Amino acid sequence: MLLVTGASGLNGGAIVRRLSAQGVPVRALVRNLARAADLATLRGVEVVEGDMARSETLVEPLRGVDRAMLTSSSDPVMLEVQSNFIDAAKRAGVEHVVKLSGIMPEVDSDFRFARMHGQIEQHLEASGMAFTHLRAGEFMQAYFRQVRSIAAHSAIRIPMADARIASIDVADIADVAVIVLTSPGHAGQTYPLTGPDALSMADVAQHLSTAIGKPVRYVDVSPDDYLAANLANGMPAYTAEALVELYAERRAGKESRVYPTAEQLLGHPARSFLEFATLHAATFRGDGLPPN
Fold first, then answer.
1. 3-state secondary structure string, the chain?
2. pLDDT digits (tens, 9 = 90+) for 276-289
3. Sign of the alpha-carbon torsion through 246, 249, 250, 254
4. Cα–Cα distance list, 162 to 37, 98, 210, 251 (Å)
5. Phi then psi dihedrals of residue 191, to 5 deg
């Protein structure tokens, strides 16, 4: 049996849907069954309730599981939550855990979630279970945060200066995860995952302009102004401060390298940002919600 954690989230949900579409039975772990009603209607999907922070709630969901996909929200307790799941999976006899990690999981990083990912990777490797790390670059879906600014100001406002970044569509991450979860030969591997291009924010703005049919410009805001804007929009301080740390790493070039790994695993090029923006043009115009 295969289990996917965080199944009501962006990445977990995408992975569950692809497994179902391919006819692969999967157990979808969620904290709240009410938030996963759509998953329960999918072929071959068993939705189970459990809290990765509470080991006692994982005993039944992990029963009979031999492979697990580990993903969870980036929040203050990510290290504790994912480490707790690893321990519970070990006790339950899970043979192989695939972890969705970050592209720069450095335990000495100035970015708090990079440090956490690095520590979780080390904990998983020390568990004795087979492991695979999927180190994903920036999600292209992160630009949905800019929809309000595009609608109001025809601009994206990010503290990136002239740095480049190699982003990847969550759909491609999900497809890679399904391959790793359902085929042999991936134990002990670390896969850095990016799209096919490293783009400046001016490039991103140009691709968005092409996709939605109206000019979009890039405004390089200061880290302080970016922090203040996110706080004013209701973002929790912990998350807003983490994003400032993240963009500092990105301005230093930490996410600018393009890796061929996704294309090699998929057997075709990963989606480009222009293709992504075109596919989600209605969302970027403010006309609708992004598809799953």
1. CEEECCCCCHHHHHHHHHHHHCCCCEEEEECCHHHHHHHHCCCCEEEEECCCCCHHHCCCCCCCCCEEEECCCCCCCHHHHHHHHHHHHHHHCCCEEEEEEECCCCCCCCCHHHHHHHHHHHHHHHCCCEEEEEEECCEHHHHHHHHHHHHHHCEEEECCCCCEECCECHHHHHHHHHHHHHCCCCCCEEEEECCCCCEEHHHHHHHHHHHHCCCCEEEECCHHHHHHHHHHCCCCHHHHHHHHHHHHHHHCCCCCCCCCHHHHHHCCCCCCHHHHHHHCHHHHHCCCCCCC
2. 999 999 999 988 65
3. negative
4. 43, 34, 20, 8
5. -115, 105
User: How many angstroms from the chain centroid is the CA of residue 227?
Assistant: 22
Q: How far apart are CA 220 and CA 181, in angstroms?
A: 40
Do 4 and 69 touch, CB atoms closer than 8 A?
Answer: yes
The first and second tokens of residue 151, run together, are 């609608």
Q: Hey, CA dihedral for 245, 151, 138, 204, is it positive or negative? A: negative
What domains appear along the chain, each with residue ranges and CATH number? Answer: 2-137+168-193 (3.40.50.720)
Q: Residue 223 corresponds to which tokens in the numbers above?
A: 């880290």
For residue range 158-217, what is the model confidence (pLDDT) as tens digits?
Answer: 999 999 999 999 999 999 999 999 999 999 999 999 999 999 999 999 999 999 999 999
Q: Tally the residues of the chain.
A: 292
